[in-house]
């Protein structure tokens, strides 16, 4: 077992009171349970063995962007081999360099090196932002087609390893192109990835933008709402204990309705609030995009305006930080989820 710096465990219950959005690590921040930790400095014991009815998985995103971060990420991958995990979810933004075919293939192999099943949902750096000069001045829709070809052709939906079978939204004739939207169930909990990205969900203007780019955003947003509603319908039909949603985009849940960054996601947010309130049981939303480690409860009811305390949001650490969050799901008791963030430290890496 490799020595690692550990953060204290965060446990969030429905009765937790929401607090302001915490600051990014490595500075201490306040979570919904009013605890503070600093991933790069604090030491804490390895996590206790999983109890009956518990299982663990990992979420990470917004890395690696460059060669330096590739080294940190490789160290992270080696560390994950020691972890008792059912799977790893990468929330997108796996590049910060030009969107070439070769970098797609290299990142796919990097994910395949993880010793667990890997589920990946795209970020904006992989295709939406590829029109930028720094990313190669590509046509985004062409890059999206290539991204799907490279990452989403496996029959079982996994980037790495087998044994975890996922359902794809593309199996629905109404949404044949959305191979990246995946869903699965484990331990009475329904999991789903949803393809929403940063850069205002692909709405930023750029030279050469066409009606086809606008139409893609509209259709993908509609697919996301449909996939969300279908996911909760399955959860209700199976009397699921909880729902976990994974996406790249920061939905700006803590911002006011009509704000610039929230507006592109408003139909999805409205549907999410409706489903979460009706579902009643625990819902976990994990995303990247903002690069700031955040654990809070920012969603409010569209009816009463009150905080929906059965939803917890996690934003993962991102570039220039490289890290992951260990999430323990409890199928027998409340609270359903506990969280243990970790950050790969250059100081610890160089001391090896």
Written account of the structure:
The chain is of the alpha/beta class and 352 residues long. The chain has helices at 67-80, 101-112, 140-151, 198-202, 211-237, 266-279, 346-350, and strands at residues 10-11, 54-60, 88-90, 118-120, 167-168, 182-186, 189-194, 242-247, 282-287, 294-296, 311-315, 323-330, 337-343. It has a single domain (10-45, 62-350), classed as Purple Acid Phosphatase, chain A, domain 2, CATH 3.60.21. The strands form two sheets. It has a seven-stranded mixed sheet with strand order 5-6-7-8-9-11-10, covered by helices on one side. Helix 2 (101-112) links the parallel strand 3 (88-90) and strand 4 (118-120). Helix 2 (101-112) runs parallel beside helix 3 and helix 5 (211-237) packs parallel to helix 6 (266-279). The chain is globular, with a radius of gyration of 19 Å.
Shape: globular
The proportion of strand residues reads 15-25%
The H-and-E topology, N to C, reads as EEHEHEHEEEHHEHEEEEEH
Q: Which second-level CATH architecture applies?
A: 4-Layer Sandwich
List the strand order in the largest sheet.
5-6-7-8-9-11-10
Residues in helices, as a percent range? 25-40%
Unreliably modeled segments = 1-8, 15-44
CATH class: Alpha Beta
Give the N-to-C terminal Cα separation: 14 Å
Radius of gyration: 19 Å
Number of helices: 7
Mean pLDDT: 87
The assigned structural class equals alpha/beta
Q: Describe the sheet with the most strands.
A: 7 strands, mixed
């Amino acid at each position: 077992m490799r020595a690692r710096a550990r953060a204290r465990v965060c446990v969030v219950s429905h009765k937790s009171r929401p607090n302001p959005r915490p600051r990014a690590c490595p500075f201490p921040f306040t979570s919904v349970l009013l605890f503070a930790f600093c991933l790069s400095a604090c030491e804490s014991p390895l996590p206790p063995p999983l109890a009956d009815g518990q299982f663990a998985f990992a979420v990470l995103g917004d890395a690696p962007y460059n060669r330096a971060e590739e080294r940190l990420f490789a160290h992270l991958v080696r560390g994950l081999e020691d972890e008792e995990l059912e799977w790893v979810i990468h929330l997108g933004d796996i590049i910060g360099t030009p969107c070439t075919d070769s970098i797609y293939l290299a990142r796919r192999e990097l994910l395949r090196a993880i010793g667990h099943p890997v589920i990946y949902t795209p970020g904006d750096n992989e295709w939406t932002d590829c029109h930028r000069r720094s990313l190669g001045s590509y046509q985004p829709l062409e890059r999206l087609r290539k991204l799907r070809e490279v990452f989403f052709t496996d029959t079982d939906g996994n980037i790495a390893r087998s044994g975890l079978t996922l359902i794809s939204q593309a199996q629905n004739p109404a949404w044949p192109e959305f191979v990246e939207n995946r869903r699965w169930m484990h331990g009475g909990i329904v999991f789903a990835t949803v393809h929403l990205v940063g850069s205002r969900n692909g709405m930023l203007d750029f030279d050469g933008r066409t009606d086809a780019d606008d139409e893609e955003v509209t259709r993908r947003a509609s697919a996301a709402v449909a996939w969300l509603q279908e996911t909760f319908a399955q959860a209700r039909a199976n009397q699921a204990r909880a729902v976990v949603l994974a996406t790249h985009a920061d939905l700006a849940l803590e911002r006011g309705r009509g704000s610039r960054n929230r507006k592109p996601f408003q139909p999805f947010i409205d549907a999410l609030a409706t489903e979460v309130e009706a579902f009643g049981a625990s819902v976990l939303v994990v995303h990247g995009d903002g690069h700031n480690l955040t654990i809070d409860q920012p969603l409010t009811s569209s009816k009463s305006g009150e905080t929906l305390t059965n939803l917890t949001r996690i934003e993962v650490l991102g570039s220039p930080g490289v890290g992951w969050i260990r999430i323990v799901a409890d199928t027998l008791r409340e609270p359903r989820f506990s969280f243990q963030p970790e950050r790969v430290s250059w100081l610890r890496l160089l001391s090896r």
